[in-house]
Structures are given as C-alpha cells and as structure tokens.
Amino acid sequence: MPKIESVDHLTEYRRKLKASRDPQQPIVLVCGGPGCLPLGSEEVAEAFKEAMAEKGLNGKVILKTSGCQGLCAKGVKVLLRPEEIAYQQVTPEDVPEIVETTLVGGALVDRLLYHEPVNGEACPHKSDIPFYQGQDPIVLRKLDLIDPESLDDYLATGGYRTLRKVLFKMTPEMVIDQVERSGLRGRGGGGFLTGRKWRLCREAEGAVKFIICNGDEGDPGAFMDRAVMEGDPHAVIEGMLIGAYAIGARQGYIYVRHEYPLAVKRLKLAIDQARKFGFLGNNILRSKFSFDLKINQGAGAFVCGEETALMASIEGFIGEPHPRPPYPAQAGLFGLPTIINNVETWANVPEIINMGPDWYAGLGTKTSSGTKVFSLVGAVNNTGLVEVPMGMTLRQIIFDLGGGILGDRPFKAVQTGGPSGGCIPEQFLDLPVDYDSLQEVGSIMGSGGMIVMDDTSCMVDVARYFIGFLHAESCGKCTPCRAGLTQLKYLYEEITSGRGEMEHITLMEELCQAMASASICGLGQSAVNPVLSTLKYFRHEYEAHIRDKKCPALVCRPLLTYTIDPETCTGCLACVRECPVGAISGIKKEAQEIDQELCIKCGLCYETCQFDAVNRE
C-alpha cells in the first residue's frame, strides 16, 4: 500500500485502481453483518472458497465478505454481482449448488431466492425484493458493495474524493455553510442541527478543539451504527476528517461499545490503513491540515451514550452526565470546544459535500431532511436494516418494506427511539416518520430503533421492561432520575403482580412530570416516554391489570389463571408430572384439577398438554 504524497498521486492511484477492475467481473458477496455472522456466514464464505477452487474459478470470480446486506430475517445473504442475484438463507451445504448452477451454468437456484408471500413469485434480483424498494441508501450505500477491510475497495467506489475536494477547494466556512444548508440533524437522538453545532464550535475561543464519534449504541434491538462501523469504517473516518477541518480540530476519538469487537477491529484496521496511506497524520495530502484518531472502548454503560457522560469516560472518570450549559461545543473534552456526532451523522457528511446541500435538503421533509437508518425488528416478517427518506410513513416501513406482521396477527404498536421512546398505536400508522411528527405523538426518533409489536404484547409489560432497563442503566447521579425510576419500577411490579391500585396511575404521571423537568440528562428526561405513551394510548390495559386483575394479552403471569377442562382432559397425567409444586391432582384416565392456592403460574401445564385441555385466562 503506497503512501499518497499529493493530490496528483491520489488521482493517479485511483485511476490505475479503477482501470484494473472489470465492472463485469463476477463477484460473490457473502454478508458479514451482525445478523448473518451468528448464522454461519464465515462458514458459507469458506465453502465458496473451496467450491470455487474445485471448479477452477479462482481469478475468474472474486469472493468477498461484505457488510450488512439489510434483510437480516433471511440470512445468510449472498449477493452475486454484477447481476445482483440475491440468495437468502444460504448454508454451507447450498454453496456447491450455487457455484455449479449459477456461477458455472448461468441458471438460478429457485429455492434460495426470495419469494413473494402472497403469490409465491420468485424475486431473483435485489431490486425485485419489496424490502429494498422504497429505500434510498446513502449511509448504507456501500455495505453490500465493498469489502470493509479493503481501503482499495473504498477508494475505487469514490472514497476520500470528498476529503480532497474539501482540503483544496473549500474553506472551513464553506464546509460548515454546506452542512447547514443541507439541514442535516444529528442522527444520535437529539436531532440538533449539525451545521449549527459545528459553527458554534468553530467560533468558540481556543486553539485546541476535538471531535468525537459516538458509537456507544446501547438501545435494545438497535444495530444501525454497528453495521456501519463494521461495514464501511472509512466513511466514518472521512466524515470526521471533514468535520475536523471545518472546526479546526487536530485530534479525534471514536467511542465504541466494548460489546462490538468486530467494529473495533475494523475501525482499528481502517485507521492504520488511513495513516499508512496518508489520510491521517501531519500535513495530509501535502496540505496544512493535520489530524489523527484514537479509539476508546466503553464498558457497556448505557448512560455513556449521553455526550457529557461519554466525555467523562474518555477523560478517565466515571461516566456520569454534567449539567449544561456550557455545551460541549463551547467547553467539552478536557474543558475544550468539542463536537460530538454519532456514526450515522458522520457517515452522511462526505456524500452531502460531494453531491451538494440542495440535493440532500431535497430528500425527506422540510424540517427533517435526508434519510434515516432504522433497525426494523420485532413481530415483523422482514427484520433488518432499512434506510428510507424522512417522511415515509410507519405503514410503508412496517408493511411494505417489513412485509407485515408475523403470522398475519393484528398490529398493535411500534416503539421508536429505544428504551426512552414511545409506543405508537395503530391509529398513527400513517404518521410520517420525522423528528417533529414522532414527538407530537409522544415518541422520539432516537438513534433509529423500531420495534414492532402484535396483539400478543402487553403494553404494561412493555413499559415495565423499558423502565427496568433504564433503572439498571441510570448512573444515579441526580435524584429525579434515580428515585423516579426506582419508584416507577416498583409501581410496575405492583401492577403486573396484581397488587396495583388506581392511585398508582396518578402517581406514575406525577413522577414522570418531575423526572422530565428536573433530570440532569436525556436519560431521565426521556425515560418517561414509554410510561406516558402507554398510559395515553393503552390506559384500558392498565385498568384491566388493576381493576380486573387480568392481563388481556396473557403475558403477566401473576395475573393468569390456569384451569383444566374436564371434558377435554384425557387423564394422561403429563401435567401432573411437570408441575413443580404438586398443584395438580387426579388419577389416570380421569380429569385432573389445579389447586389455585398452590399454583405458581409457571405455565408448564399449559405448555405440556397435548390435548388443549389446559385453559389460560
């Protein structure tokens, strides 16, 4: 790998690189994203290597491991370029057939294609699959195109061309102006205008400034930033280089969760490659701009996703938030002006500068421009990563891209924004997804988590889960958050255990009001969203838990009652053998009976009975 000494050298290297690549050469891209790796994508890649060698295809067909290909529900995904043939649920045993039939014979393996759920029609190409239709990838545009460990791949697809443009054709003011005009808002949750934040930092006093990439993605079910760091790490680095040039920073940090070892590995490799190539270090590309990067690994504290807590962690202190102002752009890391943006925000920057701010502002809505990456998970057929223009409705995302609800069950709610987001009911399925619209119905954009729920979900239990998560992750520094979450957790335990009282609802609402107005950081301020949104839209479920001592969704076990239908019971004694407390009595070939005083609501009798004789209500 040569060290690039000048712009001319970079131009010539890129020209030779592109000339050496045949756009029609067959490429096998095995998905190495977070959804496919646990399903055996490494074994599938190894099987391709062996099968291609046996058929003499080495040198004729290129084998690569790509980043996330999006449709995680159908992993392991394999994409064959340039035809864009998309195979799904591929196992190592399927590989010889793919090599023989498609790579050698030019035909399709029909059983490995995506088929329309309604009519069974095969979708041979990626563009034929409904999941990808309607998406407009910017941040994810290269994840199924390049090898994330290859700098040459990144360069061959236009990588670092925007950095060259910025360093030699634009002033820092011009860069900030374009980011401002684009309308890019921070994709980490707050939604603050990125360009305005950059301008505040550039205008702040002091010769030493820092930039930070927040890769501390801790929301349950969210893996957007992880997929980008693992699948296109150089895009994050290039975005940070541009931001550093704009505000005048010479040092940056990427803060990554310890639970993301592959992301750490690939970021470290990308940083080493960028240094050797000349994109990091002193006088980059013989300009007057110098910049370098370090990686800091978080220890898994959810609260370190908050800016001031994250900076405290980098400084070596306990990850606790601090009151604002001053804001990080004025006094951040080590007391110096600092810009913090999340992974997705940084990955947007190169394409905004390259394509122009008007192009980006033309996507999405008037107040929420561009696209947004979501991790679509839960009770939906097509789980995975999607990147859609701001303003697409929930219905389009869940039913058109997501393929609707698993098992054709009724849709009940979708929770957006992570643990601190709200639960949105069916009446708002046609709501456009943007920052302002979500806030109007009691939720938030957050970093992009989207959890779909069907009628088997108990909304009281859902809120209880998220409050329990936030209670465990709260740093405990401020009383409103620490005490408020403790009390909310206690109240949910009372309600879901059958000890709830109607006064508890009033108390919960009062606690939420105090937490939202008095907590130091966003964790405590937004922790009220799952409570208030479920109370607003699903109050009848709370009342059923409290007044009737029943869980309508049959989720909260202490409120369930198990009985045996004497007309259906065959007296096989299977339930008697499984009951851990001896609550079921009777003799063989006669109906059994459950002692409600002894029953611990474990449900083993219900799960064991093969004759549907055990009723649950």
Your description of this structure?
The protein has about 625 residues and is an alpha/beta fold. The chain has 23 helices and 19 strands. The strands form six sheets. The protein has a five-stranded mixed β-sheet with strand order 12-11-15-13-14. Strands 2-1-3-4 form a four-stranded mixed β-sheet, covered by helices on one side. Strands 9-8-7-10 form a four-stranded parallel β-sheet, with helices on both faces. The chain starts with 6 loop residues before the first helix and ends with a strand. The model has no long low-confidence stretch (mean pLDDT about 95).
List key phrases describing it.
single chain; 617 residues; alpha/beta; five-stranded mixed beta sheet; 19 strands; globular
Compact overview of the structure:
This protein has 617 residues and is of the alpha/beta class. Helices cover 38% and strands 14% of the residues.
Q: Number of helical runs?
A: 23
Helix content: 25-40%
Q: Report low-confidence residues grouped into runs of 5 or more.
A: none
Strands in their spatial order, largest beta sheet: 12-11-15-13-14
Residue-averaged pLDDT, rounded? 94
Decide which structural class fits the backbone.
alpha/beta
Strand content: 5-15%
- Largest beta sheet, briefly? 5 strands, mixed
| Cα-to-Cα separation, first versus last residue | 67 Å
Q: Give the number of DSSP strands.
A: 19
Could you say which overall geometry the principal axes of the C-alpha atoms support? globular
- Using only C-alpha atoms, the radius of gyration works out to 27 Å
